[in-house]
């Protein structure tokens, strides 16, 4: 009961000195707000950027023939030429991985292509890609108008196409391109969709100068110089944290599909698409360290201020301490009372600081991009723990000093 009575006495003392309590709690709340605010901002920005990178393919990886366009030699040194990934191999991989991931197959059909309409034609800078039903989704390409390929068009290799924004602006500047016809690679294609404008990529035009046709249609188009059509595979998963595990599984499946012997190197290469996310994790780690240091310094100043205020409180209440000791209060009980006051003040200030810090952190993160409102429970727990520690450290010496006061001298104190 002594502890409960001390708690009640501490709360009564706080209530009777409300202004001092508010000012003291404000010191703590500013320190906690800076700590939680900075760390919340880092977590919220990371969450927002993770969503952005995820939509850009940060949760995916590509499988290609090793060596790319290897010509067999480089600087006089003969290099091994690996066989292209065939359609059957790509289909086999897709069937084995479709239960764990979303797999899209594509093939580069032609580059530097001229596309013609009934009245105009483009420069020879258009690329033609053959893709399957998941190609647009895995490449984060959205349709501005029209539709995607139907199952019938994909299975039968229909002459339909989805075109980039720059192509439609050149060939159909004043009309809706959907439903119009274009000619390329000796065939006539019907436009069924137009991609959203994405802008240039390293000056190459990117998706704005791209035509996408069904994968089966691309297989039917003869390649120049008897070149073999090679297929690219993109695998996307829903949980980025499982990317390493799925890549290991994909490597084993692809080695089996390509019949790479035990102990031999892979005849393909896997490239993960989350290099930006890895850089972000490193940067956010440094930001968290910096934020913690800044918050710790602020809290250090707040703890000094709290200790000073508690010392003043001891001096102001010297007669009260003398009366309590005269009535039988022990040094332990006096010490507990002042420690409880310091801890309660810190907790009140800390809770206020946490709320303000969460609002501030999410507000800062919202300035750089859209993201959900984040409550960093880890930093909430850390903040409250720090409040208790600061209360104990800042309140112990004043409490110890109060408990050692001589009751007779205290009663005579003016």
TrEMBL record:
Its main location: membrane. It is found in: Cell membrane. The keyword Cell membrane applies. Residues 21-221 form the MacB-like periplasmic core domain. InterPro entries: ABC3_permease_C, MacB_PCD, Macrolide_Exporter_MacB. The chain crosses the membrane at residues 21-42, 285-309, 342-368, 374-397. It is a multi-pass membrane protein. It holds the Pfam family FtsX. Residues 293-407 form the ABC3 transporter permease C-terminal domain. Keywords: Cell membrane, Membrane, Transmembrane, Transmembrane helix. It comes from the Bacteria. PANTHER family: ABC TRANSPORTER PERMEASE YTRF, MEMBRANE COMPONENT OF TRANSPORTER-RELATED. Belongs to the ABC-4 integral membrane protein family. This is ABC transporter permease. It comes from Pontibacter ruber.
